Description:
The protein is mainly α. The protein has one domain (3-104). Helix content is 62%, strand content 6%. The chain is built from three helices and two strands. It has helices spanning 3-25, 32-62, 93-104; strands spanning 81-83, 90-92. A two-stranded antiparallel sheet has the order 1-2. Helix 1 packs antiparallel against helix 2 (32-62). It is elongated.
Amino acid sequence: xxxxxxxxxxxxxxxxxxxxxxxxxxxxxxxxxxxxxxxxxxxxxxxxxxxxxxxxxxxxxxxxxxxxxxxxxxxxxxxxxxxxxxxxxxxxxxxxxxxxxxxxxx
Length: 106
């Protein structure tokens, strides 16, 4: 997973893991309220992650999968290899395209 994606989604992954843990263990309370709260928060986290993924995929295809893996700056119009003007990460367009293709399962 590209660092940009992981950085932006780690909060949602953490909340999802916590809500699933509470759902299956019933900690700290057992009952209907805890189960509903855990299911609700799980659904919110999953929908936020899916919406974020859809947004990133749309942006990727708009710029022909030429996004900086660290900051998602569009690299279209730049040389085949170089340094990202936004964050200073070195890049090679074939490697960047391959990374985003693997992430998007294309």
